[in-house]
Amino acid sequence: MADERTRYFRRLARLRRSARRWSVLGGGLGGAAVVLVPYAGLGLPDAAWAASAGGALALAAWRWIDLRALAAQPAPPALDPAEAAARSRARLVAAVERLPVGPGVLAEVRRVRARVALRGTSAAEPWARLDRAALTLAGLRTRLTGLAEPAVVEAAAADRSLRDLAHRVAGVERALRLAPVEARPPLADAHRVLAGQLESGVAAYERLVVAAAGYVAEDARPDGVHPAASRLTEATDLLHGVASVLAELRAVGDPLRTTQSR
């Protein structure tokens, strides 16, 4: 959606084009009426010409009045470049999200951007592990139902918290590189604590994913032979039986084969 300033100038341009168009049309029709009426006198066609010319001139006058009224209003202020860029990005994201594969594409773009932003920091490796674990859990999520649903909710909250923690670790690490020597010890201690929390949190998330995979495996594992294998075996036996019956019927219908068999 365009901003207020853009809409204002678009409306101004539309009114100007409309006023000019109706002015030209009214002038043409009026001129035709002035030229044609003296030759044939006043008749029904001349009344139609005059009415058309009058209507066009009236519409042209209204359009010029609307144009002057709008032009007299102050134009809305221009958007800040940062705000305009943010709105453009929002429109682009909304357009991509409407596509069938849009949400997946946007998620991958955000993941790559975040990984690039953390490159060169100690948070990059835990972030990559968290990404792998989150993708694995996303593949299992549709089967984590019933008693496992609270674990899925907790995993989503932990994922957001750990990603925020990774950005904090990277921010403190970058600040540590720029800090003067006397200010580095407290920052180093804070960085060490945050990095330890990130490492332990990612390890706990990975253990959760492993447990979720075990839950899915146990939930889907049947006792004995899998039902699909049993059904395939039954279908195979049925096809073998039908093939044997068809072979016997073909042998009975072939006299030469029946004689040879005797």
Automatic annotation (TrEMBL):
The chain crosses the membrane at residues 21-41, 47-65. Keywords: Membrane, Transmembrane, Transmembrane helix. It comes from the Bacteria. InterPro entries: Rv2743c-like. This is Uncharacterized protein. It comes from Micromonospora krabiensis. The lineage of its organism: Bacteria, Bacillati, Actinomycetota, Actinomycetes, Micromonosporales.
